[in-house]
Design goal:
The complex is a heterodimer of chains A (256) and B (267). With 256 residues, chain A is α/β, with parallel strands linked by helices. Helices cover 39% and strands 24% of the residues of chain A. The chains are: A alpha/beta (256), B mainly alpha (267).
């Protein structure tokens, strides 16, 4: 199937520090694809590069075949790629409702926006009750729900999600992941999900990539990834017998 | 008086923008000979463009730098504006008066005599406050401006054209400053250093809580009233420091200002 979003040999850096060392990945339409990796592996940089906050030095990013790298962030949003940032980043002094309206900033159709606000309230009923409150007064989980809803208001074709589980309780994380899966199923929104909570991410995603120090070291369907020894060991913390000490290093697929 | 400068970028050139606006209006009145109302519009329009130009040329390159950089840049802009004004032959270092239609008119209510001048200033300021408030609260661009000033990164993520919004914010802020300058002109006269009175807006903003529009308005009212009463009831000299005493007290009791952002950033 023709991927809706495709990265080819993308290299990005922050000043002298190279964060992505040639990343290629493909996101098929209507699916959830996840990128797993430890701190500093470059997961967030992938998303920031796609949404135009960071410009890549090399490589192409294609959305439905059209190259979108080095474009202004608002142009990319208009094309249908919306980013749910790490740490939520809601507009803390605006009301929940105004936050949602800002999510729809690129859309001219007022009636459609009002309808969509109603629709996200059905996914997250808490937000309806808090509609007139300042977003800064919401709890972390509610802010995450707001961040997701705000992104939905942009009517995205592809939603980039950066660690929605950050700072949330396991129960809340589960709830949010369930809703993310529902949104993917019911709205048909393609999702590229970056997560440290590997178990959760593999639970809802269809396909997964493993990123280490700026490189993709493994990719497979999530069902297969869950069976792999190094994933079980290094990311899920399940010990398999006899893989300790120096051998652990040999098994870990990392090279620079 | 200069309270409503609620555009949230800490702009130390605000006073100078005000001064420039007054000078443009003055030129319009004396050289072109426009009537008072037209000079106001002229000053505002010119300063709107000047503000956008300043953003485009001076501030865009430092976009994304720490707030401190922006503060230094605005201080620099202020100095340059003062220097440039002194070099313009017709403006120079002298003090000019801006003619107004209500220069000497007074209204008498029983025992109290009020100059029409002051009433006009208060009325127009109030009108401006209401217009600005409505603009920030109810229009899409106004809310987007608030959003951008609160969280620039998130604004980018939402597809708000941050650069264009920043440019508009500067234009608007310069235009509002110009309006303030023109209103003040009959009281303080127009001269190159009239911008220093703009510094009174800072205690107001601090008391109200930086970044809060209603806070800035209330803060301005408090500072203005305290100064007026201190000047009347206390000994000579108290008037000038009263505002800063209020600032100290407020900062001691509520460091974020009366209406300041209560939410600490959650990580």
């Amino acid at each position: 199937m023709q991927p809706i979003l495709e990265l080819a040999n993308v290299e990005s850096s922050y000043g002298p520090v190279q964060a992505l060392r040639g990343v290629s990945l493909a996101v098929p339409p209507g699916k959830i694809v996840t990128v797993l990796g430890a701190n500093g592996a470059g997961k967030s940089t992938i998303l920031k590069t796609i949404s135009g906050i960071v410009d890549p030095q090399k490589g192409q990013i294609r959305l439905g075949g059209e190259e979108i790298q080095r474009r202004a962030p608002d142009w990319i949003v208009r094309k249908g790629v919306v980013h749910v940032p790490e740490g939520r980043e809601v507009f803390s002094l605006l009301t929940v409702e105004d936050n949602l309206r800002m999510g729809a900033y690129t859309r001219p159709d007022k009636d459609g926006v009002a309808k969509d606000i109603e629709r996200v309230f059905t996914y997250f009923p808490v937000l309806r009750a808090r509609a007139k409150q300042e977003a800064g007064q919401l709890s972390g989980g509610e802010q995450q729900m707001l961040a997701i809803s705000r992104a939905l208001l942009g009517r995205p074709r592809v939603m980039l999600m950066d660690e929605p589980s950050l700072g949330l309780s396991p129960k809340l994380t589960k709830e949010i992941f369930n809703i993310v899966a529902r949104i993917n199923g019911e709205e048909g929104v393609t999702i590229l999900l970056v997560e440290k909570n590997v178990k959760m991410a593999l639970g809802i995603a269809h396909y997964g990539y493993v990123l280490e120090v700026g490189r993709i070291v493994m990719e497979d369907t999530c069902a297969n990834l869950l069976q792999k020894d190094d994933i079980r060991e290094f990311y899920l913390g399940m010990k398999s017998a006899g893989a300790r000490g120096p051998r652990r290093w040999k098994k870990k697929k990392q090279w620079r | 008086m200069l309270i409503y400068k609620a555009t949230e970028t800490i702009n130390f050139a605000q006073g100078e923008l005000m001064m420039l606006g007054a000078f443009f209006a003055l030129t319009a009145a004396t050289v072109i000979g426009l009537p008072y109302w037209a000079t106001i519009l002229f000053g505002i329009a010119v300063m709107f463009v000047v503000g956008m130009l300043i953003e485009r040329t001076v501030l865009r390159p430092v976009l994304g730098q720490p707030a401190f950089t922006v503060v230094m840049v605005t201080i620099g802009v202020g100095y340059m504006a003062r220097g440039l004004v002194m070099m313009v032959p017709a403006w120079g270092t002298e003090t000019h008066g801006l003619p107004t239609p209500f220069a000497d008119a007074v209204l008498t209510f029983g025992e109290v005599t009020v100059p029409v001048q002051s009433l006009a200033i208060i009325g127009m300021t109030a009108a401006l406050c209401i217009v600005l408030f409505a603009f920030f609260q109810f229009t899409r661009i106004g809310v987007a401006m608030q959003a951008t000033s609160q969280n620039q990164l998130a604004a980018y993520y939402m597809g708000i054209p941050v650069r264009r919004i920043n440019m508009l914010i500067w234009g608007l802020s310069a235009a509002v400053s110009a309006f303030a300058g023109i209103l003040l002109a009959p009281l303080t006269f127009v001269h190159a250093n009239m911008g220093f009175i703009g510094l009174k807006a800072f205690p107001a903003a601090v008391v109200g809580g930086f970044g809060s529009v209603p806070g800035a308005i209330v803060g301005g009212l408090i500072i203005g009233l305290v100064e007026a009463f201190a000047g009347f009831y206390l000994a000579e000299g108290w008037k000038d420091i009263a505002a800063y005493i209020v600032v100290l007290v407020v900062l001691l009791i509520k460091p974020s200002g009366l209406f300041g952002e209560r939410t600490l950033k959650k990580v």
